[in-house]
Amino acid sequence: MDVFDEIEKTFKTLYYGWDGVEQFTGSGDRLRRLVAEMCWPMARIDEESNKCLKAVYPDPYDEMLVTKPINVWTFCPHHLLPCNFKVHIGYIPSGKVLGLSKFARVAVIYGKSPIMQEQYNRDLANFFWENLKPEGLGVFVTGKHGCMGCRGVNQELEVITSVLRGSFKTDGIVREEFYHLCRG
Prior knowledge:
The chain has eight helices and six strands. By secondary structure, it is an alpha+beta fold. The protein folds into two domains: 3-38, no CATH class; 42-183, GTP cyclohydrolase I, C-terminal domain/NADPH-dependent 7-cyano-7-deazaguanine reductase, N-terminal domain (GTP Cyclohydrolase I, domain 2), CATH 3.30.1130. The strands form two sheets. The chain has a four-stranded antiparallel β-sheet with strand order 2-3-5-6, sandwiched between helices. Helix 1 (3-15) packs across helix 2.
């Protein structure tokens, strides 16, 4: 029995109370597909995000560029409940640019496994920082967490995290421009 069979059996038993008996027609392999879609291994995340680097081009553009808001759905690793992130990515290129759609694609790929918002923010910033080597970079994420909205405190709170690199971290004017563009 592979890991997906085991997870599917556990879901059926605990979540649906099935004890291995199909009581819900039409479910097919839905649980297996759910687990396969929400639990990408890190090797696959790396492979898919690295494919986006084929869209890096030399370009003299040296002003701030912000892509926002990128809508990302993921799962809380503690409670396996959905989280919705609004991701804002800004950078000042240093001789090369990334195709605009690739920012969204990478942001979605990094949400393909249960992850804490703080770690998601760091991982995304590290990917762009290491691969684009920009003058500055900021990743600003607002998140709504199902684990807080439907259990525990029962509040739809907005959680805000940011990671800054280079001039976004060291230059207050650049940092303020980035935050202003994220909020505006």
